[in-house]
Amino acid sequence: MLRTGRLQAPKFRRQQPLGDYRVDFVCFEKRLIVEIDGGQHLDNAESDAARTAWLASQGYRDKRYWNHDMLKQPDTVAEDVLRALE
């Protein structure tokens, strides 16, 4: 969706390094990060919280979606991302 350009929105960069982290998608213009989480994120709650806190301290907002939601409800996810960009 973000990668294929289906979303008519400001430009997103994929797999972008930010500090010690690499984010799935980032829109620098709106300071928005979109992360797609799979099952491995259930085990990484503490490190995800530290990462989110650091990104917020740098002025970024993040939106997280389960991989399953991206596959089964892409339009719903796209609408949510568009709202976050407003």
Describe the structure.
- 36% of the residues lie in helices and 29% in strands.
- The chain is α+β, with helices and mostly antiparallel strands and 86 residues long.
- It has a single domain (13-76), classed as VSR Endonuclease (Endonuclease, Chain A), CATH 3.40.960.
- A four-stranded mixed beta sheet has the order 1-2-3-4, sandwiched between helices.
State the domain count: 1
Helix percentage = 25-40%
Task: Please state roughly what percent of the residues sit in beta strands, choosing from under 5%, 5-15%, 15-25%, 25-35%, 35-45% or over 45%.
Answer: 25-35%
- Radius of gyration (Å): 13 Å
What's the CATH class label?
A: Alpha Beta
How is the largest sheet built, in terms of strand order?
1-2-3-4
Mean pLDDT: 87
| SS element count, helices | 3
Q: What is the CATH architecture assignment?
A: 3-Layer(aba) Sandwich
Looking at CATH, which topology would you report? Endonuclease, Chain A
Q: What is the overall silhouette?
A: globular
Q: Give the biggest beta sheet.
A: 4 strands, mixed
Ranges with pLDDT <50 over ≥5 residues? none
Number of strands: 4
Order of helices and strands: EEEHEHH
